[in-house]
Amino acid sequence: MKWLAILAGAVALLAAPYYLDLFQIGLVTRGLVWAVVGLSVWFLLRILALPSFGHAAFFGVGAYAAGLAVTRWEVDNVFVALAIAVLLTCAVALPIALVASRLGSIGFLLITLAFAEMLRSLALRWRSVGGSDGLVGVTRPDAGPLPIDLADPLAFFYFTIGVTALCLLVLRLVQRSALGGILVGIRESESRMRALGYRVGAYKVFAFELSAAVAAVAGVLHAYLIRFVSPEDLGALVSARGLIIVVIAGAALAAPVVVAVVLTFGEDLASSRTENWLALMGLVYVAVALLGDLVSTRPRGWIGRRAATDEGATPAPDAGTDASPSCGAVALAAVPVQEGP
């Protein structure tokens, strides 16, 4: 039944140009970008029970690297740009990974938030990358050897589907592998895994780097989708959105894709009906956060149909037995506040 639902969703996504207009295709593409962000947060939160509030840093570094690749570094191939962005992001993430791997959930959350805000402050003041004005003039590079033109919205839509599917596949393979089992063991009992001879810190650094790489891919897609990079790509709201997607999605790996697309359409619908759409979406996020203790620490989540054990991992510890902040509490702290009238 699960595979039938996935197949139906994939067919509906691939056939979207036949029943959606170009504007709606753009919304689906944007939703897929946010789905990749959600997947990067999902990996740390569901596999290692580490809530990150700093994935905006990796999303933003990936976006800036993609923008600079085509505007300053004369890169004209999207795969080369992706490789540069991922490598640069992993290099930037390594110091924070080495520090954060030694911390518990609360310390991990705070250090990732501080790191993201530090990079955002740097981007605002660094004139070489546009400063507060952002990086303009971003174009979509060539997709060779693929015979497509990414300047075409439909071609970019299908390219984004392919990249999202690849991210899903990589995370699924890691989750189902022996490495995924080790990471789950670390989540359940670090001291026991150390006693068994595993280098816990090294495994946590690897998981952090993989998660950062996936977030960087999302940043690249976002930069080429809107053809602009802003310091706000490093802002806390990016991290908050990723967490909220995961809170709603539950433990099912593919669920963040559905949630991200639905939220994107919901935000567009709300913004077209009222000027106070941020307040309206804020209420939705508050509702998610208040119910987070009921759904986010349990395998089913809101739309996840299968237990985490069915996905190759054991359920995360219940919030009542751990001092870590719940996903709902983290999401509540990041509810967007409308500025101005």
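(the above was protein one; protein two follows)
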Amino acid sequence: MARRFTVPGTVALLTSSLLACAPLKTLEAPAKPDLVWYRQDASETFTKSDLETCGSTPSPAKTLAACMQAKGYLLVDRPVAEILQVHALKDKGLPVGTIAERLQLSKTKVETYLAEGYELPESPALGRLPVEILSKVGKPAVKPLIGALTSDDLLVRRQAVDALGRIGDPRAVDPLLATLNDHDSLVRGHAIEALGRIKDPKAVPPLIALLSGKDEQPHVRMSAAEALGTIKDNRALEPLVLALLDEHWGVRSRAAQALGQLGDPRAVGCLIGALQDKEPAVRGHAAEALGIMSDGRAVKPLTAALEDPDREVRKKAALALRRLTGTEFKVR
């Protein structure tokens, strides 16, 4: 069984082994993807040992691929694995020449991977990688991930919006805004969260529209409220106040939390009213928001909230009062 190791440490290319477990249509394709096994914490010796162990398994039902995956390895495009390796060594302070020697890459290739404008080639496999891996790849993955936003594969779209939010590159803002119309509500929710992380003011009007009832899914409206609170744009004040009346308690709760993040004193009266909401989560977030805003008008209603039937609400009211008055309040 042929195996070739060209990048020591965590990357090992399987030649005939991968072909043996690939689907027939892949074998018939004119160009085969250059795939390697990758695991961040595996040394060269450890990786080779795992490959030997998995390659010699006596059970035909347990393929080499299944064995490696069970050990925590991922099958990724070679450039993805190499760029992760290069950046990991660069983060340790190694110079380009040492990185090239250690990974058996040319110095030019290492410099290319480290260049500010480097972009990974598009690959169908990229969007299927765990979000944690994609976010570690960083900016080189942005362009192919933007391309993945229109994939027919639902999982790929979900992974792509999540990864783009974690990377936080402003190039993703317009494509993510377009994704707010995706037919899958989880993709829309992840896109909203991504826009909240990037914090581009351009996203505020579309997020307000979703919060204000354009999207019928409560979890999408909840995400919109959270994102608006994170962006902290005062254009969201009135929509968030109105969201305190949303039919779903989760939206009301996130709206109260977001108003606290905005910190606009015009919301104090409405947050005081939210202390009477029928749902403890809403009352609790209203109490927290009032504590953050440090407005004296909240002292009396928060003192009354110390008698709330829900203990968590009472605790949050006591903490808010401590912030407002500097006095410790016992919670029964």
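Reviewer note on protein two: The longest strand covers residues 3-7.
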